[in-house]
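Quick sanity check, EAL domain-containing protein:
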Amino acid sequence: SAKAKGRDNLALFEPALDKAARERRTIETDLREAVPRGQLRMHYQPVIDLDTGATTSYEALLRWYHPQRGIVAPGEFLKIAEETGLIMLIGDWVIRQTLSEISTWPGDFRIAINLSPTQVLSPHLVALVAQAIDANGIAPERIEFEITEHVLMAEGDASYNALLRLRELGTKIALDDFGTGYSSLSYLRRFPFDRIKIDRHFVERIEDNTHDQAIVSSVTRLADAMGMQTTAEGIERRGQLDLLRKLGCNEAQGFLICHPLPGEAVYPGDHNDSVAAEHSDDLLAYRK
Ligand code: C2E
Ligand code: MG
Ligand code: MG
Ligand code: MG
């Protein structure tokens, strides 16, 4: 019978479920100790101006230096951090660490910091940001917080108010992974973002997909008309870079230009030219 079959299936999958649950618990236990044990680090990925090739900003990306697992990317632990509330501890650490680390780097680049829905809803976020800005003497307009559509989806009004208060501090707000949500355009009516980050899925096949070209070109014109800047994510080929510039995109980020790097690799040095170029002959040619 169907019922018996269901039971059999359940029995069949139980060990796998069990394993996943145990794995999750291990990550959670380890993650709880990651901040006190100093296992978290920030990596920084340069973003370039598509007209000049100069580095305009860095996006701060979290990495977990796990003693057994090696360097773990946020995709493997952010969801657990979010569900367990550990994101608060981790998120605070990210803001303090990033602003303190970059405060010694030369240049007036922007720094982009990602915020999760729980962080945005936290009543102490704005005070923490204000304190970190003060402690490190960083001009607030150099800081750009990146949020995804999930932030505005979760708790519309409360999140919207938090973003307005961050904006009042002088920081910028970018809409990350644009185009991947359910009603991307409606979020643009809801909040005056400074920047749209065009998700890498629209960039992936842009060289031979005329529909993707049309989407990106429309988004850049829309952004322009609304006084917003655009950054394209996930650029891996020179052809994408050239096309994005032609389509009116302002800035670009991706492995072609530079992988995310630990702070020590970004500074010291003439980071405006050497770091990214070192990682890409293609980019070097682009800048000539
Ligand atoms: P995101 O904010 O959209 O960041 C861009 C992601 O794309 C990064 O993944 C980056 O390493 C990756 N990437 C950059 N260039 C390329 C490329 O050319 N090709 C491909 N395939 N990928 C590229 P990462 O570092 O694994 O981060 C994943 C996501 O985790 C981020 O997506 C962001 O939403 C979140 N995240 C990262 N760091 C933090 C953090 O400190 N706090 C919070 N709340 N979220 C974070
Ligand atoms: Mg981001
Ligand atoms: Mg993104
Ligand atoms: Mg993305």
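Posting the structure with no commentary besides this: Residues 269-279 have pLDDT under 50 and may be disordered.
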